[in-house]
């Protein structure tokens, strides 16, 4: 204890400088999206190697479970190639304009207010910013930053995440957001309070997105609160996917997304 106090006393000005400098960098990244994006891209190139080695060791420990998963997915892909029909329990459905890139998660967080996911595929594999990330259980996130061999996705568990959804039984549209704390649930706050909705109803992606295909299952309604002041429901959704057990995902991209965005941009410029 004496040596520790002596060390702090001798280096007090250096330690104070480091503390203030660190706090300044923290404030800079928190309040400036450009600098934050640059920092994320820079750190991706170096930290991803460590996460990759860690993930490789975990893969070795869980080989049996991984093999079973791959056998199941290969069977589904074979059926898709033969029949080109939809799967009841898979998100590889209906829309032939989407490309699917399999990827493995090598780092993931669920306990922070803003969570990110590191994937073992990058620009070398055709991955670009803005692509969607899904599993057979639902939407996972959107690609945020890409290096040569790796990519980082903004998780659905992020304060800036906003997914276009619909109530499956009657196609009422809304926005799914995550309010923090519980990685097993999310919230919809823009369903009008006159629409028919009950606990257990299924929520899926809607047709308004160029990132995700329509009809991907997301979760079920677990709680409904009627807000008398604004005329909307606050609906709590139980997510199908357990974000704390993510392993393999699909990165998806639509060939027609660019065409749609360019056309919509022309309309905006004429407004």
Explain how this protein is built.
The chain is an alpha+beta fold. It has two domains: 2-31; 54-255, Rod shape-determining protein MreC, domain 1 (Thrombin, subunit H, Beta Barrel), CATH 2.40.10.340. 34% of the residues lie in helices and 30% in strands. It has five helices and twelve strands. The chain has helices at 2-10, 12-31, 33-61, 63-83, 257-270, and strands at residues 98-108, 116-119, 132-135, 138-146, 151-155, 163-167, 173-177, 185-192, 202-205, 217-227, 232-239, 248-254. The protein has a six-stranded antiparallel β-barrel with strand order 1-2-5-4-3-12. Strands 6-7-8-11-10-9 form a six-stranded antiparallel β-barrel. A hairpin with a 5-residue loop joins strand 6 (163-167) and strand 7 (173-177). Helix 2 crosses helix 3 (33-61). It starts with a helix and ends with a helix. Mean pLDDT is 80; it is low at 82-93.
Quick overview of this protein structure:
Helix content is 34%, strand content 30%. The chain is α+β, with helices and mostly antiparallel strands and 271 residues long.
**How much helix is in the residues?**
25-40%
Structural class, by secondary structure, is alpha+beta
Q: What name does CATH use for the topology of the largest domain? A: Thrombin, subunit H
Cα-based radius of gyration, to the nearest Å: 22 Å
Morphology: globular
CATH architecture of the largest domain: Beta Barrel
What count of helical segments does DSSP give?
5
Task: Give the biggest beta sheet.
Answer: 6 strands, antiparallel, barrel
The count of DSSP E runs of length 2 or more, i.e. the number of strands, is: 12
Order of helices and strands: HHHHEEEEEEEEEEEEH
Number of domains: 2
Q: At the fourth CATH level, what is the homologous superfamily of the largest domain?
A: Rod shape-determining protein MreC, domain 1
| Spatial gap, N to C terminus | 69 Å
Q: Which consecutive residue ranges, at least 5 long each, have pLDDT under 50?
A: 82-93
The largest sheet has its strands arranged as 1-2-5-4-3-12
Q: What is the percentage of strand-forming residues?
A: 25-35%
Assigned CATH class of the largest domain? Mainly Beta
Mean of all residue-level pLDDT scores: 80
